[in-house]
Specification:
The structure is a homodimer of 222-residue chains. With 222 residues, the first copy, chain A, is of the alpha+beta class. Chain A has 8 helices and 11 strands. The structure holds a DNA duplex (30 and 30 nucleotides).
Chain lengths: 222, 222
DNA sequence: CGATGTGTTGACCGGGTTCAAACAATGTGG
DNA sequence: CCACATTGTTTGAACCCGGTCAACACATCG
């Protein structure tokens, strides 16, 4: 069984949960709310954002089916970020205390939760690595690679990826300005590592993902 | 009771654990080892580092008493980073499977573990925020602030902080070069936000931590 | 003592930001 | 349907922060 199904299966079998259908832009959770629920993505894509006091918004994470949203609330007791659907989506909402209670009899439940948190940490570290050792072009390339591989893992199409983020959001996520993102896109297309789907600049095709991996590798900074 | 004591108290009361005394430089865990244990810092300071395939080392995190080390192994099943004592330290090592087993009867145990993971994620996000919005000087200032506050939280002296990291390691941790770290130090001393303890360049005093906070705030980038 | 590791400082350079202008896509109301 | 506003994207030019390379100042230690 694929890893991403584990959480869904376990929740479905052992937990009461609330199905929530969402359209693009709908909110999953709001930063500051007292934490009591976790959200498991059943399908679609969720974007989480942190809002600084001065109004600056930062993209915190992107979540596909099988991913958990809301984990960062466990420590503090309130949600740390806003969560929005980037697309028509469904999330399963479960109460944290119920999960712990039922987890006492179903250890696998606790373990998938731990795995999810561990994966989150691993992703953060990878991001940090990219930030420290990759120039802008390679960071964008690596972002697209990881996104494509996340889709592939879930048996979704990767030959025509629809980015549901603006250039500004991508840049925000990768730690660079939107102009730099745009230029990096242009350069990657120029060397044939990417291709835009006609005029729709948010549809990207990756002709050869191995070439993309090799490109990122080749640009790792000493 | 202070937050950092929770884990220590709970472990002490409910779990079998192995006390390990360490001297500066001793290893706590090695990247790649199959994961089965978590380590709780009882005193001292632990530094974790990830090693890239090409030999490049990156500082992943710093851990004081009450902090957990090894959480990132839960997801993958093997340790993701090396852990070293930066100082004379003691860690309590517990088996993860035992923690889960006993946790079935002591829910607080499970919860402190979750809290620890959540805190880790929160720190990672803060780091990301700093990376994206603070120039080099302010990043260093913010790093020293957070270190000082971590010490204060544990009733340790903050008027004469001993950095147990080289300029290169600090830079590595903050995403900048050692020369930039050095220059940033000089500038912060120049404006009176920091003071070196005589000739020992690794002993830093923070005359007014609020001023440091204000400085960081004032340099947040739009 | 020289050797080695660490820290500071200067000069130069370059990748990415900033500012600005123009264009494309989409929507809105008359 | 078109005029117009709005939002997102691309591209150019100038600038600047931080990286790079290099020299030097200290410590500590064999």
């Amino acid at each position: 069984m694929r890893r991403w199904r584990e959480s869904l299966n376990l929740i479905e079998r052992h937990m009461p949960f609330l199905r929530r259908s969402l359209h693009a832009g709908d909110g999953v959770q709001t930063a500051g709310d007292t934490f009591d629920c976790l959200h498991l993505v059943y399908f679609g894509a969720i974007k989480t954002m942190v809002l600084a006091a001065d109004g600056y918004q930062q993209v915190a994470g992107l979540h596909l089916k099988g991913d958990w949203v809301g984990l960062d609330g466990i420590a503090t007791g309130y949600s740390a970020c806003d969560g929005y659907a980037m697309d028509t989506s469904e999330v399963w909402t479960v109460r944290y205390d119920e999960l712990l209670r039922i987890g006492e009899h179903v250890p696998e439940l606790v373990h998938v939760l731990h795995t999810a948190m561990g994966n989150q940490m691993a992703r953060d570290r990878e991001w940090r690595f990219a930030q420290a050792r990759l120039p802008a072009d390679a960071r964008l390339a690596d972002f697209l690679r990881s996104w494509a591989q996340a889709l592939a893992l879930r048996d979704m199409r990767t030959d025509d990826i629809t980015l549901r983020l603006t250039r500004a959001e991508i840049g925000n996520y990768l730690g660079m300005r939107l102009e730099t993102v745009s230029r990096s896109f242009s350069r990657l297309v120029e060397v044939g590592l990417l291709a835009f789907d006609d005029k729709r600049r948010r549809h990207v095709a990756i002709p050869d993902i191995n070439a993309l991996v090799a490109y990122v590798q080749s640009r790792i900074h000493p």
